[in-house]
Amino acid sequence: MKKASLPKKIIILVLVLAVPGFLYYLLTVGGKNRYKPLPVFGEKQVAKTTHKVKGKDIPDTIYHKLPDFNLTDQNGNKVDLSTFNNKIFVINFFYTACPSVCKLMNENVNALDSIYSRNKMIYFVSVTVDPKNDDIAGLKQYASTFKHLSAKRLFLTGDTATIYNLARKGLLVDAIQAGPKDFIYSDKLVLIDGEKRIRGYYTGAQTAEVDRLNDEIKVLISDELRKNDTPLY
Q1: Per-residue confidence (pLDDT) for residue 72, from 0 to 100
Q2: Is the dihedral of CA 120, 209, 136, 147 positive or negative?
Q3: CA 53 → CA 40, 46, 56, 115, 215, distances in Å?
Q4: Average pLDDT, stretch 143-165?
Q5: Could you give the residue range(s) of every CATH 3.40.30.10 domain in the chain?
Q6: Of 15, 34, 168, 213, which residue is 20 to 30 A from 162 by alpha carbon distance?
């Protein structure tokens, strides 16, 4: 085999050293990502405080955030908003007697849980809209029908008032009992950042939407790592 000449070796070396730096430059300029940031959903208010941008005082924005809640997971552990301090989480609603859509939606969430099973930063949370029938034992049995769930895959139950308030006033989605065995609830997966703000809505039963969620989780992880200097694993 013919050996590369010295000039070719130099060119190859320059490319090896320069290309990663060029790609990094494309992604970051002055420590800021060049990719489009995720939106923040919900009502916004202008604060009395300001921050400086290029020497100018810019009013701060107060974003909609989730209210605190007290629920219990399938293992009997108490879960509230502090459980997710400096964490990202994806949350959806379901009930165990749901005939079809809930199972597909939760299978899609489980697939994401599998992808991020070793990542300390992200949780996947499903909250029942039928807490009268979906107690801790019922949720544990339901969770056991899925394989290889991580410890960060939570199924939550609690009182109806807390759950419906979290849905409607916190996540800004529907959740209501329309009859003895009839529930109206959102089929959305909702992405929440480390500041408890809503960053995205995704149709839980659609593969393309779940793929989009996966992409946007990566964007949010990158943002959180930059802000908090948190290790990925």
Answers
A1: 98
A2: negative
A3: 20, 16, 5, 38, 29
A4: 96
A5: 66-228
A6: 213
pLDDT at 127: 98
48 and 133 Cβ atoms separated by less than 8 Å: no
**pLDDT in the model for residue 13:** 44
In 3D space, the residue among 71, 37, 91, 47 whose CA is nearest the CA of residue 219 turns out to be 37
Helices 207-228 and 101-115 meet at what angle, rounded to 10?
A: 40
Alpha helices in the chain (DSSP H): 6-27, 101-115, 136-143, 160-165, 207-228
Reference 71, options 119, 112, 129; nearest CA is: 129
- Is the model's pLDDT at 45 over the cut of 50? yes
Neighbour tally for 153: CB within 10 Å: 23
Alpha helices in 35-190 (DSSP H): 101-115, 136-143, 160-165
Taking alpha carbons only, the member of 102, 81, 43, 58 closest to residue 193 is: 81
Decide if 91 contacts 122 (C-beta within 8 A): no
Q: Which is more confidently placed, 231 or 109? A: 109
Name the phi and psi angles at 212, rounded to 5: -65, -40
- pLDDT tens-digit series, residues 58-88: 777 888 999 999 999 999 999 999 999 999 9
Q: What is the architecture of the domain spanning 66-228?
A: 3-Layer(aba) Sandwich (3.40)
Task: Report how far Cα 54 is from the mean position of its chain's Cα atoms.
Answer: 32
What's the longest Cα–Cα distance across the chain? 80
d(CA 232, CA 214): 16
pTM: 0.80
